[in-house]
Amino acid sequence: MRPRAQSPPRVAALTRARERAYVKAMPMAAERQRVVITGLGAVSPLGVGVDANWEALLAGRSGIGPLTAFPADDFPVRIAGEVRGFDPSPYVDRKELKKVDRFAQFALAAAQMAVADAALVVTPDNAHRVGVVVGVGMGGLASLEEAHGLYLESRLKRISPFIIPRVIANMAPGLVAIRHGCTGVNYTPTSACASGGQAVGEAWRWIRDGEQDVIIAGGAEAAITPLGVGGFAAMRAMSTRNAEPTRASRPFDRDRDGFVIAEGAGVLVLESLPHARARGARIYAELIGYGANCDAFHITAPAPDGRGAAACMQLALASGGIEAGEVDYINAHGTSTPYNDANETQAIKRVFGAHARRLAVSSTKSMTGHLFGGAGAVEAVYTALALHHGWMPPTINLDEPDPECDLDYVANSARQAALRVALSNSFGFGGANACIALRRWSDD
Questions:
Q1: First vs last Cα of the chain: how many Å apart?
Q2: Lowest mean pLDDT: which of 15-19, 199-203, 238-242?
Q3: Would you please indicate which residues are annotated as catalytic (active-site) residues?
């Protein structure tokens, strides 16, 4: 065995000095910050903007309709949760549109809404303390398919020099940072359907630990393409209730037959409480906990008995110092697939025991469909609104509850309640799990 290389004394001393300076600049664990939500933005099948989304949620209105993004007459699945009538021009310069895939357009739009809602001003003096974290599951799938078609037709003659920036997932936070001048952390969790939830959770950690004052955090996706729809259809994971689009997504219902593919983005402005108070920001809710883990079981199926999802929720509760009995509401992953909904119900029972019968659970995917990498972030926006306004969105299309799904799923009508603590679950292929815990904001 070769001896371990030794650093020259002068280099080693310099390295140690730099390490000491770095550690000295970092806050101690005792100085962990509380993290609050001061801005929200949403683009989804329910509409463009937070107000449009919230109105549709409380009305129990579905955003699912016939698939129009491409000809799908020969597809077994011909429904989707499309963002209809989306105009990117207020968010992306027309000269830049050819460089920006639809998923990144959604991210830019939701981020601009959230930053404006928070009245956040990024300056050269604070830019290094403002980061951007946006989760993306699949990236620029439409741009990739288009470029591949051109390649097959002409080899390299018609390949755009912008194809790589259009496709790569980290262009979502990159473009948001460029737009707003944020020079802090810039990161893209890519963990399938857990991506958006992990983005919000990891942003919470950076602020909690004092490394950033503000993070624009969220998730985005635009995978309604021939390969996106065709691939999931080949897995038989999607609903084929083509004649009844608005009734196709039916989490926890006995007759559910799969999820409905959807697109969009959700973005939250997260801040340390001292930073938010110093600038007089309006606060929607407090982010108090986060858990992330892996089932380590199967590439697509969840671990039996909900054990992976249960462990993830327990991590979120522990990180926030929350007792199970404090939780009033869970925005479920609730995809409308046979395995997920029963599995998540089992997981909730494992974590909450008898209290599982007293808390409320709902799946907003019954109205939006499944936004994949954007789902966790959009649902974090919805959960913050539920706490802020004291209303729980419903699970629509829950007409005949599955006997295995026997909790209170806020069936078909929104419900008013004095909520204190809520969880938002996100589970993805590969066994990736994320859970964030939020608390109603109070000055106490």
A1: 61
A2: 15-19
A3: 193, 333, 370
Q: Is the distance from CB of 271 to CB of 36 less than 8 angstroms?
A: yes
| Beta bridge mates, 305 | none
The candidate with the shortest Cα–Cα distance to 247, out of 55, 116, 396, 442, is 396
Report strand pairing: 421-427 vs 432-440.
antiparallel
User: Do 408 and 398 meet the contact criterion of CB atoms below 8 Å apart?
Assistant: no
Is residue 154 pLDDT above 50, yes or no?
Answer: yes
Q: Using CA atoms, how far apart are residues 411 and 394, in angstroms rounded to an integer?
A: 6
Residue 218: closest CA among 90, 30, 376, 333: 376
Report which DSSP code applies to 302: P
Strand 65-66 to 327-331 pairing: unpaired
Tokens 């601009």 correspond to: 112
- Percent of the chain exceeding pLDDT 70 equals 93
In eight-state DSSP terms, residue 300 is S
Angle at 385 between CA 264 and CA 292, to 5 degrees: 70
| Average pLDDT, rounded, for the chain | 93
**Cα angle value 187/188/191 (rounded, 5°):** 140
Determine contact, residues 135/199, Cβ cutoff 8 Å. Answer: yes
The mean per-residue pLDDT over the stretch 268-274 comes to 98
Report whether pLDDT(35) > 50: yes
* Model confidence at 322: pLDDT above 70: yes
Q: How far apart are CA 325 and CA 353, in angstroms?
A: 9
| 14-36 mean pLDDT | 56
Question: Is it the case that residue 313 has pLDDT exceeding 50?
Answer: yes
Residue 18 — very low, low, confident or very high, per pLDDT cuts 50/70/90?
very low
Contact 33, 204 (CB under 8 A): no
C-alpha to C-alpha distance for 379 and 107, rounded to whole angstroms: 15
Burial class (CB in 10 A: 0-12, 13-18, 19+), 296: exposed
217: β partners: 133, 268
**For the residues 329-337, what does the mean pLDDT come to?**
98
Q: What is the DSSP string of 343-377?
A: HHHHHHHHHHGGGGGTSEEE-THHHH-B-GGGHHH
- Pair 304, 64: CB distance under 8 Å: no
Beta-carbon contacts of residue 38 (< 8 Å; ≥ 6 apart): 117, 118, 120, 269, 270, 271, 276, 281, 282, 283, 284
**Tokens (6 digits) for 404:** 């295995």
Please list, in sequence order, all residues whose beta carbon lies within 8 angstroms of the beta carbon of residue 198, skipping any fewer than 6 positions away.
135, 189, 191, 292, 376, 426, 432, 434
